[in-house]
Amino acid sequence: MAAGATGYADIIRAPHAARLLTGTLVGRLPNATAPLAIVLLVRAGGGSYSLAGALAAVYAIGNAVGQPLLGRAVDLHGQPRIQLPAALVSALGAVLLVVADIGDDGPVLAYAAVAVAGLFTPPLEGGLRALWPSVLGGEERVRRAYAMDAVAQEVMFTVGPLLVTLLVALWSPAVALLVVNAIGVLGALSVVLSAPSRAWRSVPREAHWLGALRSPGLLALLGAFLFIGMALGSITVAGVAYADDQGRESVYGWLMAALGLGALVGGLAYGARRWTGTPERRLLGITALLALCYLPLMLTPGILAMTALAALAGVFLAPALACAFVVVDRHAPRGTVTEAFSWLVTTFGVGAALGTAAAGPVVEIGGTSASFGVAGAAGAGALLVLLATGRVLAVPGGAPEETVRTENDPSGAVEPGFSSGHQA
Hints:
globular
C-alpha cells in the first residue's frame, strides 16, 4: 500500500493533474447535489413532495439526455467551447428555478428551469478521463488516476449533500442552490482554462449517427452498468426502509456513509496494485464479487452488523468503475471518447433511477429484506450481461486484437494503449 500511496502522490504532483481533478469535482457539485437541493427548495416554497420528486425526475432525464450529446459536441469542437457555456446555461436554469413560482398551481417555469439545468450539465466527468492520457502519459499512471477518480466521486457525492445542508441551515435552500451552482461554474472555468483542456483535441472520427454506440463492446459494458446502477439505486430506498424498521432516521446516514467508506477503501486498494491481464476479464471478476457482496444485505441484521455489511457492499464499487473506465477507452470508436464516457455516466444514472423505482414497490410487497434483494438481483444481472457478451468484450474496438495492439500499443503491452485524444 505504501507503493500505492507513492503512486497516487506521483499523479497529484504531475503538472495540471491536481487542478483538473479538483476543478472537475467542484464543477460537478451541482449535479451531485441537485436532487436534494431541488427537494429542499420546493418544500421551502410550499410545494408538495410529489412536485419535488417530479422536478428531480425531469432534471435527471435532462441530464441523461444531455451528457452524451454534449460529450459528442466536446469530441467535435473541443472542451472550452462546450464545457463552460454549458455550465453557464445550467447555472442559469438553477437561477430560473429559484425565481419560479413553485406552487402546485403554476410550476411550468420550474419544470423548464430544471430541464435546462439538467440538459446542459457539462460533461466534465467524461472530459477529465479523456484528458488523463495526455496529462499523465504512462498507461499505469492513467489506470491509477481512474481509480483515484472513482474514489474522489464517492467523496464528492458524500460531501456535496452535507454542504447543501449546511448552507440551508445558515441561509436558505435558494441560497444553497445558487451558491452550489456558482461554485460549479468556477470549477468548470478552472478546467477549461487549463493548458491540457485548451490543447486537447479528439482524434479524427468516422462520421456516423450512432457515434460511440456503434461499438458492440461499449454497448455490452453499458448494459452491465445499467444493472450496477440499479443495484445502487435500490440500496438507497432499501436503506430508508431499514432505518424506518429500526425507528432511527440517522441509521440511513450511517449505511450510506459505510457504503461510501467501503468504496473509498476498495478504490484506493485497487489503484495501488499493478494489474496484469485484460481489464475486461478483470471487470468480470470484480462484478462477480460486487454482486456477491450485495446478497448479505438481505439478512438485515442489527445496526452495527448492517453497517459492516454496507461497507462490504461498497468495497468493489469503485474498482468496478475504475476498471470500466479503462474498458470504455479500449472500446470507444476513434474520436468518440468523451461521448463514450458520458454514455457510461448516463447509463449508470438511468439504472439508479430504475433501481429506485423498482425498490419502492418491493418494499411495500415483500418488506425490507426483499428490497435489498433487488440489489442482489441487479448485481447478478450485470454479471450475466458480462458473461453473455464476453466474446464481444474480448475484442477492443470491435477489431481483431492484433490490429488494436498495432495501432494503439506499438510496444505490445498486455493492454492496448489509450486513445483518448492528443495534444494539438
